[in-house]
Amino acid sequence: MNNLTTKDRALVLFSGGQDSATCLAWALSRYAHVETIGFDYGQRHAIELSVRPTLIEKMRQFSPEWQSRLGEDHMIDLSLISQLSHTAMTEDIAIEMQENGLPNTFVPGRNLMFMMTAATLAYRRGLNVLVGGMCETDFSGYPDCRDDTMKALQVALNLGMNTRLKLETPLMWINKAQTWQLAEQLGGIALVDLIREDTHTCYLGQRGAMHPWGHGCGTCPACALRARGYEYYRNGNFDL
């Protein structure tokens, strides 16, 4: 893919997981300047923060073009989220469904705070595109991953800061198998292998043995989704 836009400067919400790594590759294929932002919010799977620096460096070295386009990384302390929340993403409790129909891995306000923080940094850094891995297809019902939420948030952020930020969500309407396929389209099997081996998605924060789809406990919802998507991708079945 070669849709390079020289006038736009992007900030990618980059956790160190499969989706955000794919989004970073997507941004690097489109924008002449790309920066990354990560958040330490007391997440149970904080190991994702440990894999980020190595993963970013490997993405930087992936090609001369990406090397020249990938700029500064920013790590932000949002530990107040864990002080406000009582969820399976921030505490050592069993993952289960709640009475409101949402899994207790849902962290209320998390993506809203992520985007608001990213927009504030983008304002200071002269960046005009925010890229996030939110998705309505494989999103566990999280209301802050919906397209309507992102569109409303874009309006609110631009009104509140008198800017013209664009919120891009390249994974919004694709499933996990198609996310693997997108990675292959962006960087070939080499990028697929990099995402398999170096990203972290497991909610329980376990690296463990290397599975065909990557590291993880293999049983939590994030691992199950990633494994199923990879199986479908390898079998050429993208209509889950």
Automatic annotation (TrEMBL):
Query: Pathway listed for it?
Result: Purine metabolism; 7-cyano-7-deazaguanine biosynthesis
Sites binding Zn(2+) sit at C202, C217, C220, C223
One BP term from GO: tRNA queuosine(34) biosynthetic process
Tell whether Glycoprotein is among the UniProt keywords. Answer: no
One matching Pfam family: QueC
Q: Which UniProt keywords apply?
A: ATP-binding, Ligase, Metal-binding, Nucleotide-binding, Queuosine biosynthesis, Zinc
An example of a GO molecular function for this protein is:
zinc ion binding
Question: What are the coiled-coil residue ranges?
Answer: none
- Enzyme Commission (EC) number: 6.3.4.20
Q: Which residues form the signal peptide?
A: none
Summarize where ATP binds, as residue positions: F14, S15, G16, G17, Q18, D19, S20, A21, T22, C23, L24
Highest taxon of source: Bacteria
Cofactor: how bound: Binds 1 zinc ion per subunit.
Tell me its cofactors: Zn(2+)
Catalysed reaction equations from the record: 7-carboxy-7-carbaguanine + NH4(+) + 2 ATP = 7-cyano-7-carbaguanine + 2 AMP + 2 diphosphate + 2 H(+)
Q: Which family does it belong to?
A: Belongs to the QueC family.
Function, as annotated, reads: Catalyzes the ATP-dependent conversion of 7-carboxy-7-deazaguanine (CDG) to 7-cyano-7-deazaguanine (preQ(0)).
Give the protein's recorded name: 7-cyano-7-deazaguanine synthase
Q: Which organism is it from?
A: Undibacterium pigrum
Encoding gene (name): queC
